[in-house]
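Memo to structure team: turn this sequence into structure tokens by end of day. - J.P.
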Amino acid sequence: MKFLISILLVFAAATGFAQNDITGEVAAALKKGDAASIAAHMMPQIELTLNDQDNNLGKAEAQKALATFFKDHPVTGFNIKHQGTSKLDDQYRIGDLTTQKGNFRVTFFMKKSGNSMQIRQLKIEPAE
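Reply from structure team:
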């Protein structure tokens, strides 16, 4: 009986983590250049870096800036290369974004808000 309860607890914890991990949804949105789907996972205020310009923006403003970026840089692909947890217990993901106008390094930090993870910082910078 203890074994069964242990398995159920492990399964419940794993399921809870999977529901909180938005990485797949954000990666899919980046692959499509879908600013609205990315914005759906943002905190109300976000630190957005596009082409080395940092801004603290509201969700709607960030979505508009991303939409403009994707319009100017049509996306051809996106792949996650690294992931982990920061010292502040935020989750981070680093990936490569390929566009028709060049390659970019994408970093996004997610913070737990309520029962879900939300993007608090998004950087899209030219790849070196």
